[in-house]
Write a structure and sequence with these properties.
The structure is a single chain. Helix 13 links the parallel strand 12 and strand 13. It is globular, with a radius of gyration of 23 Å. With 399 residues, it is of the alpha/beta class. Helices cover 40% and strands 20% of the residues. Strands 10-11-9-8-12-13 form a six-stranded parallel β-sheet. It has two domains: 242 residues, Aldehyde Dehydrogenase, Chain A, domain 1 (3-Layer(aba) Sandwich), CATH 3.40.605; 134 residues, Aldehyde Dehydrogenase, Chain A, domain 2 (3-Layer(aba) Sandwich), CATH 3.40.309. The protein has 14 helices and 16 strands.
Amino acid sequence: MRAEVELEAAAAAAAVAELTDDGVTQALERAAVLVGERHDAIAAANAEDVHAADLDEGALDRLRLDDTRIAALGTQLAELAALPPLERAEDAWQLENGLHVEVVRIPIGAVGANFEARPNVAVDVAGQLLKSLNGAVLRTGGAALRTVTVLVDGVLRPALTDAGLPSAAVGLVRSPDREGARILVSLPDVLPLVILRGSGETTAALAREAAQHGVRTLAHAEGGGVLYIGAGADAAKAEALIAASLDRLGVCNRLNLLLVDRDAKVDVEPVLERLGIAVREPERLGHEWANDSEHISSVTLRNVDSLDEAVALANRETSGLAASIVTEDAADAKRFLDSYRGTAAYWNATTRFTDGFALTGSPETGINVDRVPGPRGPVTYRDLYLRQYRVVGDGTQHR
C-alpha cells in the first residue's frame, strides 16, 4: 500500500506545475456540472456506504448524501469557481540600497487530507486545494470510500481532464485500511502538509505521528461550541439560540458546553428536554459529546457566578473552537468578546456559524484551533500558500 500512496502523492506533486488559475476555474465549473450528471452514481455509492456502515446516528448523518446534499456539492463547487483567485502579490518595497523586495504567495505543492465518513469533505478539501493551485491526496475511512471514489473518479478527475489539466492533481488512497492514514503523514518529501479532520484521539495520534516524520499538519481534532447565557440575556433569544445551536448532531460547532449565569432569568432545562438533549456530567468539562457515540445527544450544563468565570472556563477547559454570549448588555458583550481567546467569538449568535462557507462564502479544509501564528479558525483556499520573498538587485548591493 505504501508504494501506491507514494505514487499518488508524487503524481499530485508533479501536477502542481501545470495548474493555473484559469484552468482550475474551468475545472471547478465542470465539476459542478458533473455532480449533477453523476447524481445517480453518487447516490448509489452512498447508499451502499450507508447500508454497510456500523456507525452511530451522528456519524451516519454525516455520511448520508440525500438529493439536497448532492445538489449542494455542485452548488459549492460552482460558487468556489466564481470566487476570485488567490492574490499572489502580498507586499513590496524598495530598500535604501536599491534592492526591490516583493512578498508573494506560492503553492505548497501536494497536500494530504485525512477525514472520516464525510464524503462532502472530499469535494470541499480538493476544491480548496485546487483553487490555491495545490495538489491533493485524499484519504477517507472505509465507511465513505465508495462515495469518495465516485466523487474523485467520476467528478473531480474528469473535470480536470476536461479543463486541460492533469487528473493526477487529485489523488486518492484507495484502501480502507487505517494504515493508509499513517502512510499519508509519513511522506515529507511529497506531502509536506496533511490536513487532519476527525475525532479527537485518532486525529491527535496522527498529528503526533506526522511530527515524528517532519510533516506539518492542520489538525482539527477537537471542537464543541460554548454558549454563555449572561445575566442580561433575553429569555426568548436565549431559548432560540440554544435550539439553533443544537440543530444537528455530530458536528464540531454545535453547542457542547452551556454556561448559565446565576442571575440570568432563563430556565434552560425545559428547553433541552423539549429538544431531546440530555444533560450529562463529563469527566472533563470540555469533553466533546459530538464525538461520543453513546451520548451524542448531550450537553454539559454549568451554572456560573459571573461573566469572568464563564470566559475563564471557555478559555481554560475547552478546545477554543468558538464561544457565544447571549446578553442585551453591550458592555458585557464587549468584555466577553475581548476576553475569549478562541477562534470565533459571538454575541447573540450561534456557534454553528463557525464554518468556512457560512462565514466567508468559501468551503473550508477544516478549522485550525492552534494558538500559534498562521491560519486559524476556518481555513480556506486563501490560507493555503507559502510566503516567498523575491529580491531584485542590480549587482552592486552587498552586506
